[in-house]
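Q: what sequence does this backbone want?
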């Protein structure tokens, strides 16, 4: 149970700090400062959470990451289900906290949807959005699998490598889809936005569920193949 609580807290924190920053400063490509601040908020939150709860749950805080770990033999199916439930609940709780903070404080949400993802940057193309999310998640999960491999020798720098990779992923992806690479991070804000009257994010949230999961699955398959080839050559 403790690892599920850790995943809940980690995902909630990611949404509060990442989506909250986007809501506060904006995240359009034309607003360079807000764009970079949002990317840094997501990445640096991962760094912090990696050292805060990584020793408890592995700090997946992302169903796509958990899928990659599952497919490479790093967790059981029952744990995978527990992680995903905890992550989605954490994202929903984080979005609820943002709704309360911004609502009570009368602060304008510059994203218009609690930092939810969308397809405006790809002119409404679901296919383009899927491709973006598949590619970005593939890269992100490949890095995570490599860094957390038993063969890796990164010492205490693993969290930094993963966090900064997420920053780079966001730098490219924010202007296209808002960057999900994390179904829970997309589901929470989309639901809260819909409850608040903005149903646009929920209509395309499936892109940000399927895309990251496909990208993670591909990363797991490729990583397993590469690692097995390495073993065979030795």
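A:
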């Amino acid at each position: 149970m403790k690892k599920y609580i850790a995943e809940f807290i980690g995902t909630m924190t990611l949404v509060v700090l990442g989506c909250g920053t986007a809501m506060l400063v904006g995240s359009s490509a034309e607003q360079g400062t807000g764009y970079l601040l949002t990317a840094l908020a997501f990445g640096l939150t991962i760094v912090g959470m990696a050292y805060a709860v990584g020793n408890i749950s592995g700090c997946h805080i992302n169903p796509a990451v958990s899928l990659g770990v599952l497919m490479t033999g790093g967790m059981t199916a029952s744990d995978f289900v527990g992680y995903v439930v905890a992550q989605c609940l954490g994202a929903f709780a984080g979005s609820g906290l943002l709704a309360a903070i911004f609502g009570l404080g009368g602060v304008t949400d510059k994203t218009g949807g609690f930092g939810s993802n969308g397809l405006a940057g790809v002119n409404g193309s679901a296919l383009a959005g899927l491709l973006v999310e598949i590619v970005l998640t593939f890269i992100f999960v490949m890095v995570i699998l490599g860094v957390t491999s038993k063969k890796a020798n990164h010492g205490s720098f693993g969290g930094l490598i993963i966090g900064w990779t997420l920053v780079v992923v966001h730098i490219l992806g924010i202007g296209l889809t808002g960057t999900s690479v994390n179904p829970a991070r997309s589901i929470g804000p989309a639901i809260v936005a819909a409850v608040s009257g903005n149903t646009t994010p929920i209509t395309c949230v499936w892109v940000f569920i399927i895309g990251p999961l496909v990208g993670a699955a591909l990363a797991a398959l490729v990583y397993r193949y590469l690692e097995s080839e390495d073993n065979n050559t030795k």
